[in-house]
Amino acid sequence: MKDRFREIVSSFFISVTLINVAMLILGFLFRPEQKFGYEVFLYPLLYGVIGVIPSLIITTKKELSVSQVIIRKVLQCVLIAVLLLAFMFAGQPFSSEKIPSAIGVAISVIIIFVLVNVIEWLLDLRTAKNMTKDLIKFQESTYN
Q1: Secondary structure of the chain in HEC code, one letter for each residue
Q2: d(CA 115, CA 122)
Q3: Is residue 47 within 8 Å of 81, Cβ to Cβ?
Q4: Could you tell me if 55 and 8 are in contact, meaning their C-beta atoms sit under 8 angstroms apart?
Q5: Could you give the angle at the alpha carbon of 10 between the alpha carbons of 4 and 12, nearest 5°?
Q6: Cα distance between residue 3 and residue 6, in whole Å
Q7: What is the per-residue pLDDT for 3?
Q8: Is the distance from CB of 83 to CB of 47 less than 8 angstroms?
Q9: Could you give the maximum distance between any two Cα atoms of the chain, in Å?
Q10: Cβ density class 28-43: b for 16+ within 10 Å, e for less
Q11: Which residues of the chain are under the pLDDT cut of 70?
Q12: What is the pTM of this model?
């Protein structure tokens, strides 16, 4: 449970950082003239929470095969995109002007999702290497 919580919190903060970058880029591309107040700082946090909801919902304690993990990740990405698009565009009249923004958001979600997973994988890889080094040192000290 503790590891799962740590994983979710790590994913949240990585996501929020990347969401800030995506908002900056999308803002410059689609609405460079728009200015914001301090309330804009709340949105990356909300989007980060929405982004970790699928990780809380789609969970299992059993070991998954590689294909099951891939399917799970694809479902998580699609669910995150749907949730964020619904949150951002719900209640607004649909117009052709919103299509480029929606596509930009969807592409950003995919890129951020992939980057979050790559960063988490790299952090896990580093941890595994450190644990392996420590285990080798322990074995050498025990048997020598």
Answers
A1: CHHHHHHHHHHHHHHHHHHHHHHHHHHHHHCCCCCCCHHHHHHHHHHHHHHHHHHHHCCCCCCCCHHHHHHHHHHHHHHHHHHHHHHHHCCCCCCCCHHHHHHHHHHHHHHHHHHHHHHHHHHHHHHHHHHHHHHHHHHHHHHC
A2: 10
A3: no
A4: yes
A5: 105
A6: 5
A7: 78
A8: no
A9: 73
A10: eeeeeeeeeeeeeeeb
A11: 1, 144
A12: 0.79
Q: Which tokens is 2 given?
A: 């503790």
Cβ atoms 77, 56 nearer than 8 A: no
Residues 6+ apart with CB under 8 A from 8: 52, 55, 56
Task: State how far the Cα of 125 lies from the Cα of 67, in Å rounded to an integer.
Answer: 20
Residue with tokens 């923004």: 101
Q: What pLDDT shows up at residue 131?
A: 94
pLDDT score recorded for residue 63: 86
Q: How many C-beta atoms lie closer than 10 Å to residue 100's C-beta?
A: 12
Give the pair of three-digit tokens for residue 143. 């048997």
Residue 126 corresponds to which tokens in the numbers above? 């580093």
